[in-house]
Design brief:
The protein has 1265 residues and is of the alpha+beta class. It is built from 40 helices and 35 strands. It is elongated and about 145 Å long. The two termini are 69 Å apart.
Length: 1265
């Protein structure tokens, strides 16, 4: 039927607010319009389809693989590592350069693949919206039309089970109900009408929307918006054009900041190391430069500076972070949180605000009976009936496992004990306790109290009147589900808790339906208009119906249920308690006081966000039965029942979607962690406030009215229909007339500036067109085809509201985007939860989008970064805890890595400054990098969290360089001081016990006459003067004298070893050389060489141009290649230096892997040595690798290391132990400082989580104090 003229303004409002942007009218072309309900002609439909495009959603633009790779490469550590690889390659260290480049390539590629595969969240939305053919009216006749071919002005018929193909204005409807969860997230059915019930509804009742489903009734509607212009099109727009919205996560930004600091330090190290090395004339004992070769000295000094700079770069940091994020993803998956984008692990660790949906996340997502209220007079003389307050507990979705208890006896402690005991897999558990009986348990009739008698009647009558709803259990999974109305499902589950079941071969059977036979012909079905229903059942011969005793003439009992506001005014009597555990009906006239009690109880249920359901019983005698059967329809039957003087009140049910049991504690944990929790729901404000209070989002000392708001308050005025003459779109003549006639009236009703005039002005100069890309912000530039979108307040006003409001009600999809966007613009790291299509844009915009795994739609899952497999808010908190653990362990890794890097760098710098051999060099640095700097620290990914992790505020991401000032002062700095001291002492002991010298130049030796005899140097060189009088040294010494302690102990007497040069083949040398001690046997003893006659037989004294007396070869002596010289590596000084360097390498290698134990925890390390099996495995691997490096000759020769005798090895390991002790001593101070800091942070965390809501002045004052 056509809309009446008096409804015109409502229709205009509906078309405006709901997104009817396509509807226009043209005063100059009246004849082109179809009549209401007539539909379009095929020609007009084809023209509009060509002009507007198909009724489909646009595909999103995808980032290319290369662009994502470039984003991943925006990492300064990668840049520094690449530069280091180039330096290594230029200096001939090709192996190290290949390893470093390999790390960069591997990490970037893996991360890019992960990001590239997770694009286009709108794909699932497009697939979900692919409706099949619909019944439309074309040329005045019904025709089958593909949904994608619908255009504005088409008239479409709707039936139960249909998916609405486009946004439509309702023209006709008969009991039409739709499920709009795709837009609102709320699973409740929405009753449709020709006139909008409320002007402030987000989605008006005289509109149906694309993607929603028809759950009952029939209707006819006229299409007002298709494709991207529909409400679901708004969602699709918000999922487009966001390929680069999330670029660098907070940890990447912190690492980049750290990389810039390290880059600056590298430059300083290069300059300082080169200058010190050149100024001190530092030489490598293995490959020294000639005394006067300044060019060689400068090049080698610069090379040392570059190598030292390369050594302090944490090359493995990106790789370790990648592994940690993946390990964190696995740990989250084990806790029912599946990660779809790895970087979300870090976002969760830095989360400052959680924006959560209500239904299914904070609540169980299932309507559940919470309370029953009953009245019963206990005697004929009593003036006021006794009150019966009963509560169901535990409540877990559709599970019938639970009991019914007196509300006054059910304490919070008892509930907690029941929650602990509850087993979802069981059908029935015993929850009764001493002093707390379960009233639903079987009792003898004469032993039941009044509450139990009333409960029996409540449950039996509720079970009978909800016959069409079934409770079913899946045989395989054990999961419970229902078929039918959700409110009736709650009553049916409550009845099951009392032992009343539908007949099913897998469940206990009940004879209720047979005992109290239902007369189907007398039923009054529920409609939205009457808001009541009734069933009529036969009364047994004993006149006892559900424990209620009726008079002898009663043959049937009518059970009437419905909304309290429509049923209770007709109730005239109340039950009377009789003998033998029986109730009499009617028992007595309902008094004014009792009626007031019922009204007060109904108001109390409403204040708790409970949906009320009233139930009454009506005795039916023979005459009343004939009246019912003679009634022409359901309305007349209902009127007969309501006018009956025996209509007796039975029960008032309180039904709601209960919070999950663990949610209040999880919200408190968020507050302790300084994380604010914001609820954004499509439900009503009172319900949202009540749930917010129950789960602690609204604190007890907060004013709920000030902490909550309707989302429409974010919007500026109202949206309006686009009236500009664009694109030729037209509605039917009647609809257009309604819009034209009532446009001014509607505009006057709109608060604030007129949106219609604004839109008319904006659109008059803009041709209509389909915009292919959109930014996500709700404040982006609007085009002509965007005016069906809500218009929002300026960002600063929205920011003021979002900074203090914790509960938002009546949310539209764009409202959620506006809230999340505002929070992010305030520098919050916002996590957003959701399950519906309506949540997808906000999930995409949020720093961390969290979708529901059970109730979540494919669209929401595809737009999210994290999927909760159990749909539980507590899992989000567990995921945040895991994110913080990963970041904390990343801090430990970075602190450890920078400590060992800086420690090694200071060791090298100290070696240059003090002129001693390098404690670690060449390939030793690369192998040590792999075995101690990259692989073992990976074990930190499995390290347990510190106890205070969720008791401090989220980290400050701005200016965060990963490591804190406390870590630098009390962990990094002590290690950097201790490590060089320990390593250099170990090196000094090793070199001195094997040579008698320490300094490098002393080990290299001199060509000065008498230097060895005076004990100044270990070796003597000879050479010749060139024509300029400059002395040219030989590359090898001719004589070395060392003080060797072969057992390696510094406390034993040394043995003087004199070695003289001679020509010897490699076979003879290798057979005589002892790699453990450096002994060469007798082959270099003076009497066995050409030097047996003394030095003068080959050398003579000469004076260089600086007047220094040196050893020169006599004229005519052998050529340079035939001179009797010592080998470069097997002389006692050179090999003694190698033994000392091997000891220092062992102290570095073992010290770093042992110290990692200390860095693993803030506490004393000993109790936790074996707590991390991954670390134990790496420790064993590391010690094995060290053994191979030292004692497996091919590897030790490659690394220029020497095998160490047990004493030498023990001394080196002992120095490594000293390093651990020093680190533990420094941690004592660190723990004290962290403890003091955490006490302050705990207070700050609580204040931070609550300060965004209006609080009592005393609370803020206490916190400030």
């Amino acid at each position: 039927m056509a809309a009446a003229p008096t409804e015109a303004s409502s229709i205009a409002a509906a078309a405006a607010v709901a997104g009817g942007g396509g509807g226009t009218f043209d005063d100059d072309d009246e004849e082109a319009r179809p009549a209401t309900g007539e539909g379009l002609s095929h020609a007009e439909a084809a023209r509009r389809l060509k002009e507007d495009g198909p009724n489909v959603l646009d595909a999103a633009d995808k980032q290319s693989f290369f662009s994502i790779l470039v984003t991943q490469m925006r990492n300064i550590i990668f840049l520094l590592t690449s530069c280091a690889a180039s330096i290594c390659y230029a200096m001939g260290d090709e192996v190290k350069s290949y390893v470093l480049i390999g790390i960069v390539f591997f990490v970037c590629t893996i991360n890019t693949i992960g990001e590239y595969s997770g694009q286009d969240p709108g794909r699932a939305l497009r697939e979900q919206m692919n409706a099949e053919a619909v019944v439309a009216i074309r040329e005045g006749r019904e025709a089958s039309v593909q949904a994608q071919d619908l255009v504005v002005g088409d008239v479409v018929k709707l039936h139960m089970g249909d998916v609405v193909p486009a946004d439509m204005l309702i023209l006709e409807c008969v009991d039409l109900q739709t499920n709009e969860a795709v837009l609102t997230g709320e699973p409740t059915e929405q009753q449709k009408s020709l006139v909008p019930k409320k002007k402030d509804e987000a989605f008006l009742s005289n509109m149906v929307y694309s993607g929603t489903s028809v759950v009952s009734g029939t209707g006819k509607g006229e299409v007002v918006a298709t494709g991207m212009r529909s409400q679901v099109g708004l969602i699709a727009k918000r999922l487009k054009g966001q390929g680069d919205a999330k670029t660098l996560n907070p940890l990447q930004e912190s690492i980049n900041l750290l990389g810039m600091v390290i880059g600056c330090i590298c430059v300083v190290v290069i300059v300082v190391a080169t200058s010190v090395s050149f100024a001190t004339g530092y030489q490598n004992p293995m490959t020294p430069c000639a005394d006067d070769d300044d060019t060689c000295l400068l090049l080698t000094s610069a090379a040392r500076g570059l190598i030292m700079a390369v050594s302090i770069i944490p090359h493995g940091l990106p790789f370790v972070v990648m592994v940690m994020l993946r390990v964190g993803s696995r740990e989250m998956a084990a806790r029912n949180a599946m990660v779809t984008r790895r970087s979300v692990v870090d976002y969760l660790g830095a989360t400052t605000v959680i924006c959560t949906d209500k239904t299914g996340t904070l609540t169980q997502g299932k309507m559940t009976a919470k309370a029953i209220f009953g009245l019963c007079r206990t005697g004929t003389d009593s003036e006021t009936a006794a009150k019966s307050h009963l509560e169901f507990y535990p409540m877990c979705g559709l599970s019938p496992n639970g009991g019914v208890f007196s509300a006054s006896k059910l304490s919070p402690e008892a509930k907690q004990r029941m929650d602990t005991k509850f087993d979802l897999k069981q059908t029935r558990q015993v929850f009764a306790e001493p002093g707390l009986p379960d009233l639903s348990a079987p009792h003898d009739a004469d032993q039941r109290g009044l509450d139990a008698q009333l409960l029996h009647a409540h449950l039996v009558c509720g079970f009978l009147t909800c016959y069409s709803t079934k409770l079913i259990r899946d045989i395989d999974s054990g999961a419970w589900s229902t078929v039918g109305n959700m409110t009736e499902a709650a009553v049916k589950v409550a009845a099951a808790k009392g032992g009343f079941w539908d007949e099913d071969k897998n469940l206990p059977t009940s004879a209720l339906q047979c005992t109290y036979d239902r007369d189907a012909g007398l039923e009054v079905p529920f409609t939205s208009k009457r808001k009541m229903s009734a069933t009529v059942h036969a009364v047994p011969a004993d006149q006892l119906f559900a424990g209620i005793l009726f008079d002898s003439g009663v043959t049937h009992c009518a059970i009437v249920k419905g909304a309290p506001e429509v049923l209770l005014p007709h109730v005239t009597s109340v039950l009377l308690a009789g003998d033998g555990g029986r109730l009499n009906a009617p028992g007595g006239e309902l008094s004014v006081e009792e009626r007031d009690v019922l009204q007060a109880q109904n108001d109390a249920l409403a204040s708790q966000a409970l949906r009320s359901l009233a139930v009454a019983v009506c005795p039916v005698d023979g005459s009343k039965l004939q009246e019912l059967r003679g009634a022409p329809g359901a309305e007349e039957r209902l009127a007969a029942l309501l006018s009956s003087p025996g209509l007796c009140f039975l029960s008032l049910w309180g039904i709601y979607d209960p919070p999950r049991a663990a949610v209040p504690g999880s919200v408190k944990e968020c507050h302790s962690a300084g994380i604010r929790v914001v609820m954004i729901t499509g439900d009503q404000r009172p319900t949202a406030m009540a749930i917010g209070q129950q789960v602690n989002i609204i604190q007890d000392d907060r004013d709920p009215e000030k902490c909550s708001a309707l989302c429409k308050e974010l919007q500026q005025g109202a949206c309006a229909v686009n009236l500009s003459k664009t694109s030729g779109r037209r509605l039917s003549m009647a609809a257009s007339a309604c819009l034209k006639e009532n446009l001014t009236q509607w505009d006057r009703k709109t608060s604030g500036d007129s949106p219609l005039s604004t839109i008319a002005e904006e659109t008059s100069s803009n041709p209509s067109g389909r915009k292919k890309t959109r930014m996500l912000s709700v404040h982006d530039v609007r085009k002509d085809d965007d005016h069906h979108e809500p218009k929002y307040l300026p960002e600063d006003k929205i920011a003021e509201m979002t900074s203090r409001i914790n509960v938002w009600a009546r949310a539209q999809p764009t409202d959620k985007v506006a809230i999340v966007d505002s929070l992010i613009n305030q520098d919050h790291i916002a996590a957003m939860t959701g399950d519906g299509v309506n949540d997808a844009p906000a999930l995409k915009r949020a720093s961390a989008g969290v979708a529901m795994g059970i109730s979540g739609t494919p669209v929401a899952k595809n737009a999210s970064d994290l999927i909760l497999m159990d749909d539980d808010f507590s899992t989000i908190v567990a995921a945040i805890r895991e994110g913080r653990r990963i970041y904390s362990n990343t801090q430990k890794y970075v602190t450890f890595n920078l400590s060992v890097k800086a420690g090694e760098c200071v060791c090298l710098m100290s070696a240059i400054a003090f002129g001693v051999p390098m404690p670690i060099r060449g390939l030793q640095l690369l192998f040590n990098l792999l075995t101690t700097h990259i692989l073992p620290p990976l074990s930190l990914a499995w390290e347990r969290p510190e106890s205070y992790l969720m008791q401090v505020p989220p980290r400050q991401t701005k200016g965060d360089a990963v490591v804190s000032s406390l870590m630098v002062l009390f962990k990094w700095l002590p290690f950097v001081i201790c490590m060089p001291s320990v390593v250099m002492c170990c090196l000094a002991v090793g070199v001195w016990t094997n040579t008698g010298f320490i300094r490098g130049n002393d080990l290299i030796g001199s060509s000065r006459v008498g230097a060895v005899d005076k004990g100044l140097v270990a070796c003597e060189f000879a050479g010749a003067l060139d024509d300029a009088g400059r002395f040219l040294d030989d590359a090898r010494p001719f004589h070395c004298r060392c003080q060797v302690r072969y057992d390696g102990s510094p406390f034993t007497a040394p043995t003087q070893v004199d070695q003289w040069g001679r020509s010897v083949d490699d076979v003879t040398l290798s057979s005589s050389f002892d790699r453990w001690t450096g002994s060469t046997g007798h082959i270099f003893e003076q009497q066995n060489t050409l030097w047996r006659d003394g030095v003068d037989s080959f050398l003579e004294r000469c004076v260089d141009r600086r007047g220094v007396e040196r050893w020169c070869w006599r004229d005519g002596q052998a050529s340079v290649s035939a001179r009797p010289l010592l080998p470069v590596a097997q002389n006692c000084a050179a090999y003694g230096a190698v033994l000392g360097q091997s000891m220092s390498y062992v102290s570095i290698h073992a010290g770093e892997i042992f110290t990692l134990m200390s860095f693993r925890t803030d506490g004393f390390f000993a109790p936790y040595i074996c707590s991390n099996r991954v670390y134990v495995g790496f420790l064993a691997f590391n010690l094995l690798a060290l053994t191979v490096f030292i004692y497996f000759q091919p590897v030790s020769d490659l690394l220029e290391l020497a095998p160490l005798a047990p004493t030498r090895f023990a001394i080196a390991v002992g120095f490594a132990g000293v390093l651990v002790v020093c680190n533990e001593l420094a941690k004592i101070i660190y723990r004290s400082k962290v403890g003091s800091q955490n006490e302050v942070l705990r207070k700050k965390a609580l204040q931070r989580s609550l300060s965004n809501s209006p609080a009592k002045k005393s609370l803020s004052g206490d916190m400030d104090a």
